[in-house]
């Protein structure tokens, strides 16, 4: 298990852009454009980060590929499955695609608001995850300045080494737990 996960920053930007994408698709479909053309036009109306993704989806739809295959680039974005599912459902069963896309856009926007609220609520845990590893080092520095003989005893005696070992172990446990908490809420 890795303690640090590297995320593509572009994926996060795309996830934040999904409500805008869904609204742009709804506007284009309400104007009567076919879904492939709606993806092309939506690419002109959204943030730059989503342009290539939308153009790839439009090209896939025009090529005659199955909807899920054509919209595969959207499936890599958190929340994109909902958008793809909405379009697939409309193509299979019919219905009001514009209303569905508008509802999906609102749901995705609510999801983003909740993610931001969770990020704010867990800011203290993230700050603690940065401070916890520094606390023992700073404490040792103060001990070295204020009582150098105590610092020497800490590194040269069995009880001192035991204290250092327990301290290092507890620090690692704290870091592990803080990272699990942050990961559990998606940060």
Characterization of this structure:
The protein is an all-alpha fold. The chain has helices at residues 9-30, 35-45, 51-62, 67-70, 72-75, 80-93, 97-121, 123-131, 134-146, 148-156, 158-184. Helix 6 (80-93) packs antiparallel against helix 7 (97-121). The longest helix is centred in the C-terminal third of the chain and has 27 residues, at 158-184. The two termini are 17 Å apart.
Please state roughly what percent of the residues sit in beta strands, choosing from under 5%, 5-15%, 15-25%, 25-35%, 35-45% or over 45%: under 5%
Calculate Rg over CA atoms: 26 Å
Q: Count of DSSP E strands?
A: 0
Order of helices and strands: HHHHHHHHHHH
Helix content: over 70%
Spatial separation of the terminal alpha carbons:
17 Å
Give start-end ranges of low-pLDDT stretches. Answer: 1-6
Structural class by sheet pairing and helices: mainly alpha
Average pLDDT, rounded to a whole number, is: 86
Number of helices: 11
Biggest sheet architecture? none
What would you call the quaternary organization? single chain
Shape: rod-shaped
């Amino acid at each position: 298990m890795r303690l640090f996960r590297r995320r593509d920053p572009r994926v996060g930007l795309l996830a934040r852009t999904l409500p805008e994408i869904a609204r742009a698709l709804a506007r284009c479909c309400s104007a009567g454009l076919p879904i492939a053309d709606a993806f092309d036009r939506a690419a002109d109306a959204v943030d730059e980060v989503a342009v290539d993704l939308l153009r790839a989806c439009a090209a896939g739809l025009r090529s005659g590929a199955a909807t899920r295959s054509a919209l595969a680039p959207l499936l890599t974005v958190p929340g994109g499955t909902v958008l793809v599912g909405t379009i697939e459902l409309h193509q299979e069963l019919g219905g009001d695609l514009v209303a569905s896309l508008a509802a999906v856009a609102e749901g995705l926007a609510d999801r983003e608001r909740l993610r931001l609220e969770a990020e704010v609520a867990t800011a203290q845990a993230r700050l603690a995850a940065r401070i916890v590893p520094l606390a023992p080092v700073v404490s040792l520095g103060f001990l070295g300045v204020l009582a150098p003989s105590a610092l020497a005893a800490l590194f040269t005696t069995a009880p001192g080494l035991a204290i250092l070992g327990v301290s290092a172990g507890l620090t690692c446990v704290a870091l592990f737990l803080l990272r699990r908490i942050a990961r559990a809420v998606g940060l």
